[in-house]
Amino acid sequence: MAKVILITGTSTGIGLETAVQLAEQGHQVYATMRDLNKRSLLDTEVEKRNVKLNIRQLDVQDEKSIHTCISEIISNESRIDVLINNAGAGFIKPMEQASMEEIQQVMDVNFYGPIRCCKAVMPYMRNQKSGHIINVSSVGGIVGSPVNEIYCAAKFALEGLSESLATYLEPYFGINISLIEPGGTITEFGNSLTEYFESTGGILNDDYKPLMETYMGYRATFTDEFKEKAFQKPSDIAAVIIGCMNDPHPKVRYLTSEGTLAFTKLKTSLDPDGELLKAQVRKGILNK
Questions:
Q1: Where are the domains of the chain?
Q2: Residue-wise over 123-146: b if at least 16 C-beta within 10 A, else e?
Q3: Residue 216: which of 191, 233, 234 has the closest Cα?
Q4: For residues 262 and 147, is the Cβ–Cβ distance under 8 A?
């Protein structure tokens, strides 16, 4: 059965590939992005793969644009079956060196953005007594990493939000919540992080120089050949997202590869998909 799907952040990478794969499967896809001037890659892929989807403007930092987009979808389709919160922004900089404006921006895109979108679609999903919200997180939402602490904090927050919502939205309102947790992925995401770090002054304090030189040296080992062997492609992550969407009993979390399972093993080995903890919390508090 075709579903009505809203996905954010589809101008490149995982969002683009997920939108196109969903359209290939016959779903009614609303692929959104903050800046429609950046739609050319998506347009090219849509034409090449001969699919139909709806491209709309949606800025996860702007409530008005979110509600405008969702109102149009409801007007056209009378429902929203799936929300995929994919839009996000990485960040490399030690916390002490980051400005509060930078920190607030990272939190706003990666955490408050999904909250805004969830709050906008949930009334419709509650009324139809069904829905699935899929939040694209990261292994950085499970394991903290050096000089990525602000990004990790935002993803940790998204994980806590999602785990909490998952305890009650499904039994009371028929809405499932899932997390997708990729690791290294072949996109422009990593390159843009390095470019931003360098464009904003690089190492701003000599005390941090040894740390940053070590970290940036580590990142320099991510050659194209290495990425091809060790990283996942956007199409791989898209397949996990679609598998989650099609799961008759959606799990709380979906780590996207054996590598991500290994990386997070010390935290997730007892309950890799989050279902045991969800059941324990439901039983202990809600008697569900």
A1: 4-88+109-186+233-286
A2: ebbeeeeebbbbbbbbbbbbbeee
A3: 191
A4: no
**123 pLDDT exceeds 90?**
yes
Count of residues in the chain: 288
% of the chain beyond a pLDDT of 90: 81
Any alpha helices (H) in 167-287, and if so which ranges?
A: 169-173, 189-199, 209-220, 224-230, 234-246, 258-263, 265-268, 275-281
What is the C-alpha to C-alpha distance for residues 75 and 277, in angstroms, rounded to an integer? Answer: 38
pLDDT at 189: 54
Tell whether the torsion through CA atoms of 94, 95, 99 and 105 is positive or negative. positive
The pLDDT assigned to 215 comes to 85
| β-bridge mates for residue 181, sequence order | 255
In the numeric block, which tokens belong to residue 281? Answer: 């919390």
Does the structure show a pLDDT above 70 at 49?
A: yes
Return d(Cα 181, Cα 196) in angstroms, integer. 24
- Looking at domain 4-88+109-186+233-286, its CATH superfamily turns out to be NAD(P)-binding Rossmann-like Domain (3.40.50.720)
Q: What is the pLDDT of residues 154-195, one digit of tens each?
A: 999 999 999 999 999 999 999 999 999 998 776 655 556 556
Provide the annotated active-site residues. Answer: 151
237 phi and psi, to 5 degrees? -65, -40
- Core vs surface per residue 101-110: b (16+ CB within 10 A) or e: ebbebbbbbb
